[in-house]
Amino acid sequence: MGRSERTHDRWRFSHRTGLAVACALTLLVPALPVWAQSGAPAPVAADQPATRSGAPVPSEAKQNETAFALLGAPPKAEVRIDGKLIGITPLPPRTALAPGPHQIVISRRGYSTFSSDFTAIEGRMVAVEVELTPLLAILKVSSDVPGAQVFVDEDLRGETPLELELRPGPHVVRVRRIGYFEQTWSVATVAGEQYDRDLILEIQPEQKRREEAVFKTEKRWYSRWWVWTLAAVGASGVAAAIVTPIVLSRRSDCDKLDGEVCFPISVMPASLQLGLTIPLK
Description:
This protein has helices spanning 3-28, 31-39, 205-217, 225-249, 251-256, 270-273; strands at residues 67-71, 78-81, 84-88, 95-96, 100-107, 114-120, 125-129, 137-143, 149-152, 155-159, 162-166, 169-176, 183-189, 194-199. By secondary structure, the protein is of the alpha+beta class.
């Protein structure tokens, strides 16, 4: 083999080695963001206020079945028969019930509690008339930023989201959270009524600047340029580590070619076989 042919083969070997490194980078670099995301802790959801589970829905009795009808109860009141919650008012016009003596208890926040005994007659419907007296008003306050303090008549009553009872009459409600403008309003409450207030708190300029400054300093590590530079260098090292042992493992064959390097394609990884075949003469 002449000097010009050797030079040409070496050029082809260097060109194809560079192609192998480029293929390795193409395979390895896109996987880094996925690895970074899978290794990062999953965001934890913020704590939410406890909600009451759905109440059971009582079955409606057919004609000639034992049943009772509830009269005079306000809506959204809990109905318990013999200590067991059977539903929320309003109930079906004919609520199925086993024959015999029973105790009924009806309660709703802000109202007096009604309790009485009655007897269900087999095959007939019994009417149970109740009366709940409204005593207090209900105030529900929520905000887009949870944890705001709620003051009623300058008394701290809790933090949003909040549901509380108020005496009938005029009240001044104030909601405050550090870094946000306060909100104050007046309300004249009526016993038995519910008042809902959903607030959107306006952030103060100084607090907004602080939050923006913190956000700028908390860039994710994989969004920085030097991370990708190191990743590219590392991928190049991986490609070189794959190529070098293959070349050395067939060094004896290369000696037969007067020092030329041969690439045994049959033992190379499939990802590097494309375009790496070097014909041996």
